[in-house]
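subagent[fold] <- orchestrator: predict structure for attached chain, return tokens only, no commentary.
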Amino acid sequence: MDANIQTQLEAAAFRQLVAHLQAHTEVQNIDLMNLADFCRNCLAKWYLAAAEANDVPMDYDAAREYVYGMAYNDWKDQFHKPATAEQLELFESKKGA
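subagent[fold] -> orchestrator:
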């Protein structure tokens, strides 16, 4: 496969993942971390790292706004639910694994 086509396909898949997460605000970051070992904040950090690697000016807040589809604090106010004791216990148990 041509490298340019591969990059286009990867970018399209990433955009679809971001859109999917924006549409599914019921999915909490703690659940993503516990199930898949990444969350929206991880995606934002990876996006920021890619921008920095390509000398594109960006900060973490801008990267999170791209991933969340709104300012992080707005998303948190509207959609974030406190983690349950079970969710936190599972999260902590995976840190040492």
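orchestrator: received. Logging for downstream: The chain has one domain: 3-95. Residues 3-95 form a domain with the SMc04008-like fold fold (CATH 1.10.3340.10).
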